Amino acid sequence: MELIASTATPPTRGCKAKGCGTNDDGLAGLPASVREQVQNHPCFSEKAHHHFARMHVAVAPACNIQCHYCNRKYDCSNESRPGVVSEVLTPDQAIRKVKAVAAAIPQMTVLGIAGPGDPLANPERTFETFRRLSEETPDIKLCVSTNGLRLPEFADEIARYNIQHVTITINCLDPEIGARIYPWIFWNHRRIRGVKAAKILIRNQLKGLEMLVERGVLVKVNSVMIPGVNDHHLAEVSRAVKERGAFLHNVMPLIAEAEHGTFYGVTGQRAPSNAELHALQESCSDSMSMMRHCRQCRADAVGMLGEDRGQEFTLDKIASQEIDYPTAMARRQRVQRAILDSLAEATPPLAAKPPPEALIAVASKGGQVVDEHFGHARHFSIYRVSAGRRAFVERRAVALYCSGASDCPEEEERLEGHLGALADCNGVLCSRIGIGPWQQLERAGIEPSSSYALEPIDQALDRFYQDLLEQGKLTTSHPQQATA
């Protein structure tokens, strides 16, 4: 097995502290200039994602590689999945949309180009958009997400437009594994296949990573966990990208639904379980800071992580809007400053004995309030909660088992997926829940509640945690947590 990363001496630069990354303790290990960069970036800071929003503009339709987990032809406006968009924009349209969103959502701090193809396979459209945004909306952070094939060619261009954050998707260092993920790449006007293609891609990804770090750009690496293909290999990837100066590693679960029409989907490649994903993230965290709050967003996502307000800003709805951006920018600065001041003033509680922690699952449509029926939820957001503190852990997918009053069975076997996904949780918050699921959750040691329906999630978590504490249900760890 040839590992491309082992053929070169890794540079000794970049973020060296294990904890640097997404939480408060990690940020403390970073230089002040870097902390300044990530404190209001919802994708790079776990704390920031509760308070700041992001948007993607889909100006890059073409791609120069084929991945077995990607099919950009499939589109559903209700679906959140990388590569999915409802409309591709020209740079002019993108600028108009960014200004409209920035004026309406003042806590939007980050603009990214992430598809639906690869931004660097569409360099004219991508850099024309970045050039104009850097001139016309200077208060917005600029990000790009790429497969890395053309990254060495455009590293200087990225630095020139003050693009401070780059995400590279690196799924392997071994070309033999790469050949099982990428059937071909388009390179130097030719389609190249198999191991040869994977070698070129991996070498360019790592070289591009090093070049960006040398130019002071913060780099996050995404990897898709594919059971039986690269799952045993991603800890090596994590170590290699860390050595080359990557700031953060985001291991994401494969999405392989057959209806999406991807190669993996139609050939039955399975996705990892939540337990497998969590175990891999834990093993990688020995050498690298891990991102755990990724929502695998659409390439035209708008709003807070976990919500999509894109339909509020379609081209027909913003066509007649005239945005006074200097006025909007002044308001944005006031709102964002107030958020940062509020976060700085928040003082963690002191106690001689640490309060017990609880894992609480939340069913929410948009990630802001508790507004999802337990049986209608396709995802549960998991939070770690203690006295006055909340931290988002991850998002867990479940199969839909209830599609309406006429098809909402309560047989125990239909809930096995939910019970497995929530096995280590102390409780679950939802807007409504049937008596059957309620009883099955209680038997599994999971306390359900619909008493906080339509409340903001943070408020509901605090109140639910306090109720569990007063009822004596948090004196010991949940059995599944204790054995994890």
Strand order of the largest sheet: 9-8-5-4-3-1-10
Shape: globular
Mind telling me the C-alpha Rg? 22 Å
The tally of helices reads 16
Structural class: alpha/beta
The major β-sheet equals: 7 strands, mixed
CATH architecture of the largest domain: Alpha-Beta Barrel
Measured by DSSP, the beta-strand proportion falls in: 15-25%
Fraction in helix: 25-40%
Number of strands: 15
Alpha-carbon distance between the two ends: 33 Å
Overall number of structural domains: 2
Let me know the average pLDDT: 81
**The CATH C-level class name of the largest domain:** Alpha Beta
Name the CATH superfamily classification of the largest domain.
Aldolase class I
- State the low-pLDDT regions, or none: 6-26, 74-79
CATH topology of the largest domain: TIM Barrel
Report on the structure:
- The chain has helices spanning 24-28, 32-38, 91-104, 123-136, 151-160, 175-181, 194-214, 234-243, 263-267, 274-284, 315-318, 325-345, 416-421, 435-443, 457-470, 479-483; strands at residues 53-56, 65-66, 108-113, 141-146, 165-169, 184-187, 190-193, 218-225, 248-253, 302-303, 358-362, 379-386, 389-397, 427-429, 447-449.
- The chain is α/β, with parallel strands linked by helices and 484 residues long.
- The protein folds into two domains: 30-340, Alpha-Beta Barrel (TIM Barrel), CATH 3.20.20; 356-469, Dinitrogenase iron-molybdenum cofactor biosynthesis domain (Nucleotidyltransferase, domain 5, 2-Layer Sandwich).
- The strands form three sheets. The chain has a seven-stranded mixed sheet with strand order 9-8-5-4-3-1-10. A five-stranded mixed sheet has the order 13-12-11-14-15. The protein has a three-stranded antiparallel sheet with strand order 2-6-7.
- Helix 5 (151-160) links the parallel strand 4 and strand 5 (165-169).
- It is globular.
- The model is unreliable at 6-26 and 74-79 (pLDDT under 50).
